[in-house]
Amino acid sequence: MITFQDLNGIRVELSFEKGLFPIKAMHVLVIAKYKGKWLLTKHPIRGIEFPGGKVEDNETLEEAAIREVLEETNVEITDMEWFAEYIVYEENPFCKAVFIANVGYIHDKSTTFETEGARWLSTNELQNYENLSFHMQDQGMQAMLKKVNTYEGKWNN
Predict the structure, then answer these.
(1) Which residues cross the membrane (predicted)?
(2) CA-CA 20 to 30 A from 70: which of 27, 40, 101, 148?
(3) Model pTM?
(4) Residues contacting 57, CB < 8 A, separation 6+
């Protein structure tokens, strides 16, 4: 387990083992890569980040991950698997499940995004991008990106 403070000074615990936290994950984050580029989205306030969001009523984590990626990027994902989870100890603590996935289908542009749509960045571009969300800059994200590199054979390049 990795414990750190995010850029807002809030304590966060990250685990690559399932079920270690006392709070059930009700948020999701999806890390996907296609043809050598990471699938990200641009949130109008926070900046560039991996797609994700809250689980809705009567929805599984996996269903929420698929829905959120589609809503935010207009991309359908496949071959999704659980990767990590982390808990954020703000006033109302929450737990987020992290999935890795392949890109299955990229729809034509749409105006139904909750964000500014899909952004495709190479690893180098991601490491040097100036408008990253604060979520993308903390120690936990760096640990996840380092570990996800061990999954390089998974991506549908």
Answers:
(1) none
(2) 148
(3) 0.91
(4) none
